[in-house]
Design goal:
Residues 116-142 and 144-155 have low confidence and may be disordered. This protein has helices spanning 70-78, 94-103, 120-123, 143-146, 159-168, 172-181, 186-201, 207-211, 213-230, 234-243, 247-262, 267-286; strands spanning 6-10, 14-15, 24-30, 33-40, 47-52, 59-67, 85-89, 108-112. The protein folds into 2 domains: 1-116, no CATH class; 138-287, no CATH class. Strands 1, 2, 3, 4, 5, 6, 7 and 8 form an 8-stranded mixed β-sheet that branches. By secondary structure, the protein is an alpha/beta fold.
């Protein structure tokens, strides 16, 4: 029987709400390591923990827990919920660390350092304008807090955070638009696909997710293909082209290719993108 990694996050400052806590989730594997995304310290930044597996798989299961205090951790351990890894931040009291190591010798404790903002802007006094109720302080909110706020332009520098907000609000078209509004990295896409995969699995059996499941599947596939384009993996993408795309995926990929063609840095790259765009367009016309 395969031993599924169990990872606990300790303290209120962690946000792992994109996982179904205590249930089987699937995360990406990069260079043989589990890639577990989380937020910390009320920051908009998506951070990651890498846990070695030695596996050659692209995706592996994991179980995530969140303990807000010692009492929750102790109660969970007593009922047989034994995390192999416990993620804590550096401000955890030393007495708690010692207690955990004595009580749970088999548990690996990972200490996360808080990011310190030393910029001049962060040290400047707040103005009356910043206190306005209509202004949202990006560094002090989580996706759950922002989802209800309609002015999302403030958050436009982080596509992963935006994706999370739009998915919470079921604004799928806005998630698709991220492919065109940002030059996404492979890590950006990996995190966005992790959020999509959780929604596709729909372990809580939410009826609204069942309704949009085909769209979510098409979207995660489009994001997967986008990485091949953005990293200019010619052979890999042309194999996918030969296999063909659905009409919905074709439209998303066509729009991305058109955008990338406009910003291509050299003529050869531009010509290849143009050829790909024509091939995708022909697939759209045939369907």
């Amino acid at each position: 029987m395969v031993n599924v990694p169990r990872v606990g996050f300790f303290g209120d400052d962690f946000d792992v709400s994109h996982f179904h806590l205590g249930e089987l989730s699937f995360v990406n594997v990069k260079a043989g390591k589990l890639v577990i995304p989380y937020q910390h310290g009320f920051s908009n930044e998506i951070k990651t923990i890498y846990l070695g597996t030695g596996s050659l798989s692209d995706v592996l299961p994991v179980v995530i827990y969140h303990y807000k205090n010692k009492e929750e951790l102790m109660a969970a351990w007593e009922r047989g919920e034994h995390a192999q890894f416990l993620v804590v931040d550096e401000e955890i009291p030393r007495s708690d660390m010692v207690s955990f190591k004595i009580r749970y010798p088999s548990m690996n404790i990972l200490v996360i350092k808080k990011r310190i903002n030393t910029s001049a802007e962060s040290q400047s006094p707040k103005t009356d304008e910043s206190k306005d109720k209509g202004v949202v302080d990006y560094d002090k909110v989580r996706a759950t807090d922002v989802a209800k706020n309609q002015n999302l332009n403030t958050y436009s520098e982080n596509p992963v955070f935006l994706a999370r907000i739009h998915l919470r609000a079921m604004e799928l078209d806005k998630v698709k638009q991220l492919l065109l509004d940002f030059h996404l990295s492979s890590d950006d896409v990996m995190f966005i696909r992790t959020f999509l995969d959780v929604m596709i699995k729909n372990e809580l059996k939410k009826p609204e997710l069942d309704v949009v499941k085909p769209q979510l599947i098409a979207m995660t596939e489009a994001f997967r293909l986008a990485v091949l384009i953005l990293e200019y993996r010619v052979e890999d993408f042309e194999k996918e082209l030969d296999s063909g795309f659905s009409k919905e995926i074709s439209h998303m990929i066509y729009a991305l290719l058109a955008k990338e063609q406009e910003t291509a840095q050299d003529l050869e790259h531009e010509i290849v993108l143009w050829e790909w765009k024509l091939r995708v367009r022909s697939q759209i016309i045939k369907k």
